[in-house]
Design goal:
Layout (H helix, E strand, L loop, with lengths): L5 H27 L18 H6 L8 H29 L7 H13 L2 H14 L9 H23 L4 H8 L4 H12 L1 H16 L3 H4 L8 H8 L7 H42 L1
Length: about 280
C-alpha cells in the first residue's frame, strides 16, 4: 500500500473543515433544542429534555407554526408537480430547433441571475396593480416557479441531450402512438431524472424565503414564520422547530432517494427480463 501524499492530507483537512462549516450550525441548533425548561439560546446547556418539542404542540406556542407548515407543504407539492410537468414538456420541445428557441432559453435562465427580492417585488406589484389578491397560493406560487422551473428545465435539457432516440423509433415501428411512446418508453427511462426534478422543485419551494417575502400576502409560509419568530422568541422552542423542519426535509430527501433506487432497480430488472426474452 502506497503512503499517502501530503496533498491528500491537505485536501482531507479542507474537506473536514468544509463539512463542519456546512453542517455545524444545524448540529448546534439540534443540540440546543434538547435543553431543559430553563434553557437559553446559547451554550452551556441547562439540562436535557424534550420540553421545547412538547411546547411546539401546545396551544400557547408562539406563532402559527402548523398553519405555516401546512401552507409550505401544499405550496411545495404544487410547485413540485408543476415543475416536473413543465420541465418534461419543455425538454421534449427543445429537442428540436424552433424559431426563437435560443432567445427563450436565455430568458428562462435569466430568472436565476435576477436578485430574488426583485422577483418577489415585481410579482407582488404585478398582482396588486392588476387587482388580483396577493396570496401564497397564487402570487407566491408564481414567484417560486421562477426559481424552480429553470433548474428543472436545465436538468431535462441535459437528460434529453443524452437520450437515445432509437428507443422511440423502435416503439413507433411496433405501432405505438406518440402518447404511448412517451408513456411507456420515454417516461420510464427518464424516471430517475424526474424524481430528481421533483426533489429540486419541492425542496427549493419548501425553504424559499426571498421570493415569497412580498408575494405570500397575509399568510406566512414556514420560512417567513420562522424569520418572524426570530424577532420575538427568546427560548429554544425556535431551535426545536428548526430541528423538526430539518428532520422533515431529510425524510423527504430520503423518500425521493428511495424512489430513485426503486426506479433504477425496476428499470434494470425490466432490461434483464427483455434480454432473457430475446434469448
Amino acid at each position: 500500500m502506497e503512503p499517502r501524499s501530503r496533498s491528500f492530507y491537505v485536501l482531507a483537512a479542507f474537506f473536514t473543515l468544509f463539512m463542519l462549516f456546512l453542517y455545524g450550525p444545524t448540529v448546534t441548533i439540534a443540540i440546543l433544542s434538547f435543553q431543559g425548561p430553563s434553557g437559553g439560546l446559547t451554550f452551556p446547556m441547562n439540562g436535557v429534555s424534550l420540553h421545547w418539542f412538547r411546547d411546539l404542540f401546545e396551544q400557547q406556542a408562539v406563532g402559527d407554526i402548523w398553519g405555516s407548515f401546512s401552507r409550505s407543504l401544499v405550496l411545495g407539492l404544487m410547485v413540485m408537480v408543476t415543475t416536473v410537468v413543465v420541465s418534461v414538456m419543455g425538454g421534449l420541445a427543445f429537442r428540436r430547433r424552433f424559431p426563437g428557441s435560443n432567445i427563450l432559453f436565455y430568458l428562462i435562465i435569466t430568472a436565476l441571475v435576477i436578485p430574488s427580492i426583485l422577483i418577489s417585488l415585481g410579482v407582488g406589484l404585478m398582482f396588486s396593480q392588476s387587482g388580483m389578491t396577493v396570496h401564497w397560493a397564487t402570487s407566491g406560487f408564481g414567484a417560486q416557479l421562477t426559481w424552480t422551473l429553470p433548474f428543472g428545465l436545465l436538468i431535462m435539457f441535459a437528460v434529453f441531450n443524452r437520450f437515445d432516440s432509437s428507443y422511440e423509433e423502435a416503439a413507433r415501428d411496433l405501432g405505438a402512438t406518440s402518447w404511448q411512446t412517451i408513456r411507456h418508453v420515454v417516461l420510464p427511462i427518464i424516471a430517475p431524472s424526474l424524481i430528481g426534478v421533483a426533489l429540486f422543485g419541492f425542496t427549493l419551494s419548501y425553504d424559499e424565503f426571498a421570493r415569497t417575502l412580498l408575494t405570500a400576502g397575509s399568510y406566512n409560509t414556514l420560512p417567513l414564520e420562522i424569520f418572524g419568530m426570530t424577532t420575538n422568541v427568546t427560548t429554544p422552542v425556535l431551535y426545536a422547530l428548526g430541528t423538526l423542519t430539518t428532520g422533515f426535509s431529510l425524510i423527504m430527501i430520503g423518500a425521493f432517494l428511495l424512489l430513485t433506487w426503486v426506479s433504477t432497480k425496476r428499470k434494470a430488472r425490466a432490461g434483464s427480463d427483455a434480454g432473457k426474452g430475446m434469448v
